Amino acid sequence: MTRAVRYDEFGGIEVLRVDEIDRPVPDEGQVLVQVRAAGINPGEAAIRTGAMADIFPSTFPSGQGSDLAGVVAEAGAGVDRFSVGDEVIGFSEKRAAQAELVLVDVDNLTPKPRNVSWAVAGGLYVAGVTAWGAVHSVQLDKGDTVVVSAAAGGVGSLAVQLARRAGATVIGLASQHNHEWLQSHGVIPVVYGDGVIDRITAAAPGGIDAFIDTHGGGYVELALALGVAVERIDTIADFAAAAKYGVKTEPGTNARPGAEVLAELAALIAEGHLEVPIANVYPLTQVRQAYTELERRHTHGKIVLEP
Asked: What's the CA gap between 84 and 251, in Å, rounded?
């Protein structure tokens, strides 16, 4: 037997529990991973409440989570790229990552560099691939100026760094206590809230070329008010505004398979070119507490579960 996060119906944090389940057995092309760390994400909370049932239908009991990092415990037939004991980063397409043992398709795994911590590796997939996609979607070039909302959050903190690596001047919208971190990464911090359009204009008198919204709640309209072209606005949160105004919600033309992007991001981390801030780490049994913190939406970086 092994343990995994489960829920039997749509609802709030109270529906989450940790169950004893049978040990999974890998089929052909699958790897059984002993999970050392599993990231959590706002989208998982939306799926759990049923708010995204049209996009991500659920069957019950449902597992939860995509991000994971761990050690190969068993390899199915036809798997020759990984062996028992290998350290890997990957993702579950079955929403099952928050568990002690997880079945993963071999194509959804990449080796974990030894100098990348378990917490960072386990929280990398959703935030990392989303940030990578958003930055590529708005087609940043050297000399562009881009605004990133929720710039210190799980996705935003990676998007600002990747945008800087693309050669852009980056304005990060964040609360005051995150400004020092943003400045240390070459980002111009701006406080969000009333009057933000004036503060952005003052920080970028030459205008704004692109906008990445990782929060929702009016930022698409703000980008349009700043004169940003529709094709250079990307939101990962406000799908209603995207449908209304025709801005982007997807990674764009340079998208690559998830494991390939994971490998690129992991290499950047290992080489010291990308930081994944870890806001907190919880044991698997405290999954409700972890999501309580996440859903306050004021964390700096990633929250991670450790089975």
From this structure: 34
The tokens describing 293, both together, are 């913190």
Q: Using a cut of 0.85, tell me whether the model's pTM lies above it.
A: yes
Looking up tokens 């390899």 gives 75
Residue 76 has phi, psi (to 5 degrees) of -80, 175
User: In the beta sheet, which residues pair with residue 101?
Assistant: 34
Centre a 10 Å sphere on the Cβ of residue 243 and count the other Cβ atoms it contains: 10
From first to last of its 307 residues, the chain has per-residue pLDDT tens of 999 999 999 999 999 999 999 999 999 999 999 999 999 998 899 999 998 888 888 899 999 999 999 999 999 999 999 999 999 999 999 999 999 999 999 999 999 999 999 999 999 999 999 999 999 999 999 999 999 999 999 999 999 999 999 999 999 999 999 999 999 999 999 999 999 999 999 999 999 999 999 999 999 999 999 999 999 999 999 999 999 999 999 765 456 678 999 999 999 999 999 999 999 999 999 999 999 999 887 778 899 999 9
**Sequential DSSP letters for 179-227:** HHHHHHTT-EEE--STTHHHHHHHH-TT---EEEESS-SSHHHHHHHTT
Count other Cβ atoms within 10 Å, centred on residue 301. 23
Strands of 40-117 (E only): list them: 67-75, 87-91, 101-105, 109-111
Residue in this structure with the two tokens 């960072």, named with its chain if needed: 120
Neighbours of 192 (CB within 10 A): 19
Whole-number Å distance between alpha carbons of 255 and 233: 16
Backbone angles phi, psi at 193, to 5 degrees: 110, -170
The Cα 302–Cα 290 span in angstroms is: 11
Q: What residue has token string 């939101």?
A: 235
d(CA 287, CA 181): 27
> Which string of b and e fits 27-45 if b means at least 16 CB within 10 Å?
eeebbbbbbbbbbbbbbbb
